C-alpha cells in the first residue's frame, strides 16, 4: 500500500510536468525539450529561496513565478522568431535552451548535489496500522490532484481557457476574432515553464538536486505524453499513473530492470494503439 | 536541396589529399590527434545526416548507435581476441541492427515524437551499458585497454600518426560510399520520403522500408565511427552514450548544414575546434555552444553550407539591394495569402 502512495506521488509529479508539455504542444506545436531544464531550474531556485528565507512555502510560491518569467523571456527572445518555420527547428532551439540553462545553473550553484528539507508540517509519516506512508508523498499526490483539477477548471470553465483551447484548434481564426494570439502563446509557454518549475520545487525534498535531474524525469515525461496520446491532458493523467505505478512497483520487485520495464510499457501501448491511448491521428507532427 | 555527386567527390578527394599531406607538413602530435578525432566525428555526423538531413528522421538517439558499435568492438577485440578489422565490422553490424530497431520505432511514431522515443531508447541503452551489464562493459568506470590494429610488423599503429593514416583511409572510403549512396536512386527515395511521405506512399513505395534501410545504413557508419573512436582513445566510457552525444552530432550537422554531405563534416570540424579552443578558455564553453546553436537555428538554419562563396558573390554582384520597405510589402502579401 505504501508502494501505491509512492506510485501516486510519482504520477502526480509526472502529470504536472506532462501537463505543461501538453499545453505548450497543443498551442504552439512545439515539443519543449527544455521542459526538464525548467524543472531543474525550479528546484534550484526553490532551494535558494528556501535557504534564504527558511520557508519552503515561500519557495513553492515564488520559484514557479521566476521560472515562468525565464520561460517568457526565452519565448520572446528566441522561439517566437521561429513560429512560421519548420517544427524541427523550434524543437532544436529548445535543445539549445537546455545547454544554456544548464550552464547558467552550473555557474550559479556549481555541480555538487544539494538537498532541500521538507517543511516541518510535512515531515515524518502517517501510520495506517498495517503500513506507513510518508506525509510528504501524500502531499505530492494531493498537489498533483489539485493541479489536474485546477487545470480542468481553468481550461474548461473560464474564458481564458476557452481561448487557449480554441487557439490550439485554429490559431489563425482566433486571431481574426481579435485575440492577440502572440501574447497567448507567450503566456502559455510561460505557464508551461511555471508548471515545470512548480514540479521542480515539489520534487526538491524527494530527490537530491543535480544538473541531470531534469533529464531523468523528462524522459519519463515524454513517455507519458506519447502513451497518453499527444496533446491530450486526459491522456497525460492516464500515462502519468501508468508510468508512476510501473516505477514504484518495479522499484519494489525488480529494481535492476525498472528502466527496460517503463520502456516496455511504452512499446506495449504503441503496439496496441499507435497514436497513444487518447491520441488522434492528425495530431501527429 | 539537390546535391551534385561530382561536387561532393571533388571536395572529398581534395580534402583527403590535403589531409594525407598534413603529417609531412610538420604537424605536431596534438594536431594529428585532433584531426583523427575530427575525422571520426565527421563520419559520425555524415552518418547521422543520412537519417536526418536526407530521410528526414530526426533521431535523438544516435549516441546509442555510436556507443553500441564502440562497445561491441571493444569487448570483442579486448576480451575475446578477435582481430581488429573483424571487431570493427561486428560493431558496425550490431549498430546497423540497432538502427533497424529504430526503423521499427519510426513505423509507429513519426516526426518529433520519433526524436523523443529514440532519445528514450538511447537513454535505456545507456543505462543498460553503464549499470545493468556492468560485468561485461565495466560499468561507469568505462572499458579500458581497447586495442589498436596489428597489421604486418612494419606498421606500429600505437603511433598516432600511423593510426591517423588508417583512420583517414577508412573515413575516406566510408564517406565516399555515403556520397555515392546519397546520389543513388535509393538516396532519391530517401529524399522523397523526407519531402512528401504521403505522396511517396501513394506512388507505391513502402516508406517504412526506406526509412528502416536508411537508419540501418546510418547505424552501420555510426558503428564504424564508434569503433574507431574507442580504438583511437584506447578507452570507451558510458558517457559516450549519454544524450549529450546525440545532441553534439545534431549541433555539428545543423551548424554545417543538414541535407548536405560536406556540411556535417565541416560542422564537426567547427565543433571540435570550438571544443579545443573554448574549453581552454572557459569551463562554461558548452553554454556558449548552446548560445551559438540557438542563434544558428534562428539566423542560419541551413548551416554554414548555405554560405557558399557562390551565393556571397551573387549577393556582391547583385545589381541593387532591395530596400526593407519593398521586402516588407512582399512579406505582407505573403502573410495575407497564408491567412
UniProtKB/TrEMBL annotation, chain A:
<feature type="transmembrane region" description="Helical">
    <location>
        <begin position="56"/>
        <end position="79"/>
    </location>
</feature>
<dbReference type="InterPro" id="IPR052157">
    <property type="entry name" value="BCAA_transport_permease"/>
</dbReference>
<keyword id="KW-1003">Cell membrane</keyword>
<dbReference type="Pfam" id="PF02653">
    <property type="entry name" value="BPD_transp_2"/>
</dbReference>
<feature type="transmembrane region" description="Helical">
    <location>
        <begin position="257"/>
        <end position="278"/>
    </location>
</feature>
<feature type="transmembrane region" description="Helical">
    <location>
        <begin position="134"/>
        <end position="155"/>
    </location>
</feature>
<dbReference type="InterPro" id="IPR001851">
    <property type="entry name" value="ABC_transp_permease"/>
</dbReference>
<feature type="transmembrane region" description="Helical">
    <location>
        <begin position="188"/>
        <end position="207"/>
    </location>
</feature>
<comment type="similarity">
    <text>Belongs to the binding-protein-dependent transport system permease family. LivHM subfamily.</text>
</comment>
<keyword id="KW-0472">Membrane</keyword>
<keyword id="KW-0813">Transport</keyword>
<keyword id="KW-0812">Transmembrane</keyword>
<keyword id="KW-1133">Transmembrane helix</keyword>
<feature type="transmembrane region" description="Helical">
    <location>
        <begin position="213"/>
        <end position="245"/>
    </location>
</feature>
<protein>
    <submittedName>
        <fullName>Branched-chain amino acid ABC transporter permease</fullName>
    </submittedName>
</protein>
<feature type="transmembrane region" description="Helical">
    <location>
        <begin position="91"/>
        <end position="114"/>
    </location>
</feature>
<keyword id="KW-0029">Amino-acid transport</keyword>
From TrEMBL, chain B:
<dbReference type="InterPro" id="IPR043428">
    <property type="entry name" value="LivM-like"/>
</dbReference>
<feature type="transmembrane region" description="Helical">
    <location>
        <begin position="249"/>
        <end position="271"/>
    </location>
</feature>
<feature type="transmembrane region" description="Helical">
    <location>
        <begin position="163"/>
        <end position="181"/>
    </location>
</feature>
<dbReference type="Pfam" id="PF02653">
    <property type="entry name" value="BPD_transp_2"/>
</dbReference>
<dbReference type="InterPro" id="IPR001851">
    <property type="entry name" value="ABC_transp_permease"/>
</dbReference>
<feature type="transmembrane region" description="Helical">
    <location>
        <begin position="57"/>
        <end position="78"/>
    </location>
</feature>
<feature type="transmembrane region" description="Helical">
    <location>
        <begin position="31"/>
        <end position="50"/>
    </location>
</feature>
<feature type="transmembrane region" description="Helical">
    <location>
        <begin position="7"/>
        <end position="25"/>
    </location>
</feature>
<keyword id="KW-0812">Transmembrane</keyword>
<feature type="transmembrane region" description="Helical">
    <location>
        <begin position="283"/>
        <end position="300"/>
    </location>
</feature>
<keyword id="KW-0472">Membrane</keyword>
<feature type="transmembrane region" description="Helical">
    <location>
        <begin position="213"/>
        <end position="237"/>
    </location>
</feature>
<feature type="transmembrane region" description="Helical">
    <location>
        <begin position="112"/>
        <end position="129"/>
    </location>
</feature>
<keyword id="KW-1003">Cell membrane</keyword>
<feature type="transmembrane region" description="Helical">
    <location>
        <begin position="84"/>
        <end position="105"/>
    </location>
</feature>
<keyword id="KW-1133">Transmembrane helix</keyword>
<protein>
    <submittedName>
        <fullName>Branched-chain amino acid ABC transporter permease</fullName>
    </submittedName>
</protein>
Amino acid at each position: 500500500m505504501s508502494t501505491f502512495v509512492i506510485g501516486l506521488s510519482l504520477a502526480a509529479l509526472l502529470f504536472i510536468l506532462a501537463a505543461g508539455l501538453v499545453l505548450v504542444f497543443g498551442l504552439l506545436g512545439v515539443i519543449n525539450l527544455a521542459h526538464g531544464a525548467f524543472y531543474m531550474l525550479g528546484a534550484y531556485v526553490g532551494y535558494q529561496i528556501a535557504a534564504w528565507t527558511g520557508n519552503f512555502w515561500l519557495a513553492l510560491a515564488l520559484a514557479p513565478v521566476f521560472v515562468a518569467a525565464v520561460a517568457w523571456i526565452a519565448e520572446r527572445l528566441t522561439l517566437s522568431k521561429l513560429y512560421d518555420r519548420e517544427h524541427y527547428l523550434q524543437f532544436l532551439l529548445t535543445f539549445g535552451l537546455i545547454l544554456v540553462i544548464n550552464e547558467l545553473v552550473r555557474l550559479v550553484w556549481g555541480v555538487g548535489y544539494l538537498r532541500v528539507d521538507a517543511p516541518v508540517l510535512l515531515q515524518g509519516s502517517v501510520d495506517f496500522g498495517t503500513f506507513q506512508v510518508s506525509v510528504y508523498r501524500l502531499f505530492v499526490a494531493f498537489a498533483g490532484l489539485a493541479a489536474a483539477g485546477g487545470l480542468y477548471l481553468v481550461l474548461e470553465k473560464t474564458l481564458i481557457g476557452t481561448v487557449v483551447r480554441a487557439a490550439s484548434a485554429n490559431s489563425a481564426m482566433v486571431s481574426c476574432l481579435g485575440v492577440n494570439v502572440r501574447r497567448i502563446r507567450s503566456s502559455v509557454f510561460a505557464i508551461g515553464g511555471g508548471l515545470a518549475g512548480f514540479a521542480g520545487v515539489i520534487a526538491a525534498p524527494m530527490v537530491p538536486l543535480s544538473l541531470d535531474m531534469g533529464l531523468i524525469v523528462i524522459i519519463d515525461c515524454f513517455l507519458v505524453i506519447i502513451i497518453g496520446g499527444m496533446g491530450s491532458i486526459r491522456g497525460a493523467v492516464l500515462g502519468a499513473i501508468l508510468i508512476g505505478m510501473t516505477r514504484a512497483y518495479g522499484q519494489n520487485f525488480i529494481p535492476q530492470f525498472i528502466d527496460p520495464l517503463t520502456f516496455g510499457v511504452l512499446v506495449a501501448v504503441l503496439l496496441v494503439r499507435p497514436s497513444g491511448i487518447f491520441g488522434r491521428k492528425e495530431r501527429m507532427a | 536541396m539537390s546535391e551534385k555527386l561530382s561536387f561532393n567527390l571533388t571536395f572529398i578527394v581534395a580534402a583527403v589529399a590535403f589531409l594525407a599531406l598534413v603529417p609531412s607538413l610538420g604537424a605536431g602530435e596534438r594536431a594529428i590527434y585532433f584531426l583523427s578525432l575530427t575525422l571520426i566525428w565527421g563520419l559520425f555526423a555524415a552518418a547521422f545526416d543520412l537519417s536526418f538531413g536526407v530521410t528526414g528522421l530526426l533521431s535523438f538517439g544516435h549516441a546509442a548507435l555510436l556507443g553500441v558499435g564502440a562497445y561491441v568492438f571493444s569487448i570483442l577485440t579486448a576480451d575475446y581476441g578477435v582481430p581488429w578489422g573483424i571487431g570493427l565490422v561486428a560493431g558496425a553490424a550490431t549498430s546497423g541492427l540497432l538502427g533497424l530497431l529504430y526503423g521499427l520505432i519510426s513505423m509507429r511514431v513519426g516526426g518529433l515524437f520519433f526524436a523523443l522515443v529514440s532519445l528514450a531508447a538511447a537513454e535505456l541503452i545507456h543505462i543498460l551499458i553503464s549499470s545493468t551489464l556492468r560485468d561485461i562493459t565495466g560499468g561507469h568506470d568505462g572499458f579500458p585497454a581497447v586495442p589498436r590494429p596489428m597489421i604486418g610488423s612494419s606498421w606500429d599503429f600505437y603511433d598516432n600518426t600511423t593510426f591517423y593514416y588508417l583512420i583517414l583511409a577508412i573515413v575516406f572510403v566510408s564517406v565516399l560510399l555515403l556520397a555515392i549512396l546519397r546520389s543513388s536512386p535509393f538516396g532519391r527515395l530517401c529524399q522523397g520520403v523526407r519531402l512528401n511521405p504521403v505522396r511517396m506512399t501513394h506512388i507505391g513505395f513502402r516508406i517504412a522500408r526506406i526509412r528502416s534501410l536508411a537508419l540501418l545504413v546510418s547505424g552501420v557508419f555510426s558503428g564504424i565511427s564508434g569503433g574507431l573512436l574507442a580504438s583511437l582513445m584506447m578507452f570507451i566510457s558510458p558517457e559516450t552514450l549519454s544524450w549529450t552525444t546525440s545532441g553534439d552530432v545534431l549541433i555539428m550537422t545543423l551548424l554545417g548544414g543538414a541535407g548536405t554531405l560536406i556540411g556535417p563534416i565541416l560542422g564537426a570540424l567547427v565543433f571540435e575546434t570550438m571544443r579545443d579552443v573554448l574549453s581552454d578558455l572557459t569551463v562554461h564553453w558548452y553554454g556558449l555552444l548552446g548560445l551559438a546553436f540557438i542563434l544558428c537555428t534562428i539566423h542560419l538554419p541551413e548551416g554554414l553550407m548555405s554560405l557558399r562563396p557562390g551565393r556571397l558573390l551573387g549577393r556582391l554582384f547583385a545589381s541593387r539591394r532591395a530596400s526593407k520597405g519593398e521586402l516588407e510589402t512582399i512579406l505582407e502579401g505573403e502573410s495575407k495569402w497564408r491567412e
